[in-house]
Structures are given as structure tokens and as C-alpha cells.
TrEMBL record:
<dbReference type="InterPro" id="IPR045005">
    <property type="entry name" value="BPM1-6"/>
</dbReference>
<dbReference type="InterPro" id="IPR000210">
    <property type="entry name" value="BTB/POZ_dom"/>
</dbReference>
<dbReference type="InterPro" id="IPR056423">
    <property type="entry name" value="BACK_BPM_SPOP"/>
</dbReference>
<comment type="similarity">
    <text>Belongs to the Tdpoz family.</text>
</comment>
<comment type="pathway">
    <text>Protein modification; protein ubiquitination.</text>
</comment>
<dbReference type="InterPro" id="IPR011333">
    <property type="entry name" value="SKP1/BTB/POZ_sf"/>
</dbReference>
<dbReference type="InterPro" id="IPR008974">
    <property type="entry name" value="TRAF-like"/>
</dbReference>
<dbReference type="Pfam" id="PF24570">
    <property type="entry name" value="BACK_BPM_SPOP"/>
</dbReference>
<protein>
    <recommendedName>
        <fullName>BTB domain-containing protein</fullName>
    </recommendedName>
</protein>
<dbReference type="InterPro" id="IPR002083">
    <property type="entry name" value="MATH/TRAF_dom"/>
</dbReference>
<dbReference type="Pfam" id="PF00651">
    <property type="entry name" value="BTB"/>
</dbReference>
<dbReference type="GO" id="GO:0016567">
    <property type="term" value="P:protein ubiquitination"/>
</dbReference>
<feature type="domain" description="BTB">
    <location>
        <begin position="166"/>
        <end position="232"/>
    </location>
</feature>
Length: 343
């Protein structure tokens, strides 16, 4: 089956929703795996299965129906269960839902990668043909809603740093941020130790060095809201993800670290492998480290990654020398001398 998507993400009260208009061309009787998409800072996958009339007879015992199933699958790791639901509606030629042809999974908890919940549509063949927008093509509207946990407090704003309700302040890169000790302690064991037991316990203002103020602001945003702040574009998002990985590791905000790891993992390729591997080692990410090693185990991938980063050869030789041996395929390999110098 061929399917093309029109994606429209949006924030709504209580969570975030991404809407899909799925243009389906049921040319074959097989599953369609829609590529992973991000809703609520977690990754998901939808699977659509359309059975032709010939197959549906075996399923529904009816000559006049076709059978479609839509499943929502959690496609990444989570630190705690995520509640989500998916609704699906067959659309007519005017883009309106066809009566009695909408379904909903209801709210479901997804607690680990691979968890799947779905729903089935039994669509009358005549209705399906009447709703086709073109030859052998119809449209299904899907809405994926991911629920958010209500924040403990309103997110601190820079203009409110002198609010008496805040009992701790941070000085980061020339900017001051106000916050609540109890909220920070609940989300970060490192901050809990520093604010209640460490040298800065009881201090009205804590200095944080080696961190950009916008990164600390994003860290606070996540601590209070359990989600990442919006970014302007993909480049800014990628840069912020790297910085937030460092911040999450520094302050042991494990859920934020997991989200950053997932984002970087999906950017893993020849161009980024060296950078991601170094980030993984620097910030103690076993997940990213193993993903990079698996990727670089193929000699062509390692060679391509080394071509993008002159320092990768020495880095791999220091931490994972066995990988370099995979590149010694031929005795006259021109890379052999360079590799031997690294080992």
C-alpha cells in the first residue's frame, strides 16, 4: 500500500496533538509503516493495514466490506508511562468525516518501546468507492494525542525573578533565574544535594558556570513542564539537544537525558557519527555509545565517518580499537599504515 502524509502538529489543552491526512492507494495487501514522528517529545510510529475485498471475506465473512486496521506504536524509550490515544476517520470527497466510519483507541498507557494499541475500521466497499478522491485512493484523518502531566508550578519567567515565591535564584552567564527548591529537588538529585546539603545550601543565589543561559532556561522549562521548549528551526533544535544532553547528565535529569539521546540517535549517520560518539563518551550515554558502535562496526560506515572527522581514528583507537580491525580487509589496503599508527 502506498501512503502519503500531510502533518499538522499543534499544542492543545492537556497535551499535544499531531494530525495526519493519510492518502492511501491500496495497490497491495500489506502493512504500511509510516516513518517515526515526534509528538510530545516522544517518538511514535503508525502502521496501517488495508485488506482488499478478497482478503476481507476471510476476516469478516462479508462480500461487501473491506478491512483496515490502524495501530499506534511507541517507537522510543520512556522513563515513565506516556498516555496517548489515536482517532481515525474516513473522509469523503469534501474532506468531511463519513458518518459511522470513525474509531478511537481510547486513552492507553505506553510504558516501553514497542507498545502498540490500535483500532479497526470495517468500511463498506460502496462507501469507500464513493469517498475515493481519485482512482483507487481514499483519505483517512488520524489524530495522535499525547497527554501531558500538569506542571507543579507555573513556569518561572525572567521578569518575575524577584517574586517572593521563589526561594532560590541562579546566576548563569550574566542572567538571573528564579525557581523553587522543592521542584528542582524533586526532578534532580544533584540539585537536591546542592540546594539542601551542599556548600550552597541555604544560599539565596547559586552561581552556575560553563553553561549558556538559554540552555539553563530550557532545563528549567523541562523541569517545570516535563517537555522541551519550542525552537525556531532544525539547526537550533539540534544544537540545543547537544547542550541539553550535557545539562541533563550534569544534573542527573534522567528523563531529559533520555529524550536528548533519542533525538541524537535519530540523527546518526556518516556525517554525525563521530560527534555523537564523542558526546556519548563525554556525557556517559551508554545508549548512544552502543548505537554508534553498532553503526561503525560496518567498515564502510567507519571509513566514511573517519573521512568526515580527522580525529575519529585516534578516538576509536583509544576506546574501541577492535573496530579498526574491521577495515583491514585487504593486505594492500591504503588505510593500513594509518590504522597501524593509531593502534
Amino acid at each position: 500500500m502506498l501512503a502519503t502524509l500531510d502533518i499538522a502538529p499543534a499544542s492543545v489543552a492537556g497535551g499535544v496533538v499531531t494530525s495526519y491526512l493519510i492518502h492511501v492507494d491500496p495497490s497491495t495487501d500489506e502493512w504500511v509503516d509510516i516513518p517515526s514522528f515526534n509528538v510530545g517529545d516522544r517518538y511514535w510510529r503508525m502502521d496501517i493495514n488495508y485488506y482488499s475485498n478478497r482478503v476481507s471475506r476471510l476476516v469478516s465473512k462479508s462480500k461487501s466490506t473491506v478491512h483496515m486496521s490502524i495501530d499506534l506504536t511507541l517507537d522510543g524509550r520512556v522513563a515513565k508511562p506516556i498516555t496517548a490515544q489515536v482517532t481515525a476517520s474516513l473522509l469523503d470527497q469534501d474532506g468531511e468525516p463519513v458518518p459511522d466510519h470513525s474509531v478511537c483507541t481510547g486513552t492507553r498507557d505506553y510504558s516501553q518501546v514497542g507498545h502498540t494499541y490500535g483500532c479497526r475500521l470495517f468500511i463498506n466497499k460502496e462507501i469507500l468507492e464513493a469517498c475515493s478522491v481519485s482512482a483507487n485512493c481514499f483519505i483517512v484523518a488520524c489524530h495522535v494525542f499525547v497527554y501531558k502531566v500538569s506542571p507543579l508550578f507555573d513556569l518561572p519567567q525572567p521578569q518575575h525573578i524577584l517574586d517572593a515565591d521563589f526561594d532560590v535564584r541562579f546566576r548563569v552567564g550574566g542572567e538571573t533565574f528564579g525557581a523553587h527548591r522543592c521542584v528542582l529537588a524533586a526532578r534532580s538529585p544533584v540539585l537536591e544535594a546542592e540546594l539542601y546539603k551542599g556548600a550552597t545550601a541555604g544560599a539565596s543565589c547559586t552561581q552556575i558556570d560553563d553553561m549558556l543561559p538559554e540552555v539553563f532556561a530550557s532545563l528549567l522549562w523541562f523541569i517545570y513542564t516535563d517537555c522541551l521548549p519550542p525552537t525556531k528551526d532544525a539547526v537550533e533544535e539540534a544544537m540545543m539537544t547537544e547542550h541539553l544532553l550535557a545539562a541533563a547528565d550534569r544534573f542527573s535529569v534522567e528523563e531529559l537525558k533520555l529524550i536528548c539521546e533519542e533525538k541524537l540517535f535519530r540523527e546518526l549517520n556518516h556525517d554525525t557519527a563521530a560527534k555523537i560518539l564523542k558526546l556519548a563518551i563525554r556525557h556517559r550515554s551508554s545508549f548512544l555509545r552502543e548505537a554508534c558502535i553498532d553503526f561503525l562496526e560496518e567498515a564502510p560506515c567507519l571509513e566514511a565517518a573517519m573521512a568526515m572527522d580527522d580525529g575519529l581514528c585516534e578516538h576509536v583507537a583509544k576506546f574501541y580499537p577492535v573496530l579498526l580491525k574491521n577495515m583491514w580487509v585487504y593486505e594492500e589496503d591504503p588505510m593500513q599504515d594509518e590504522l597501524a599508527m593509531c593502534l
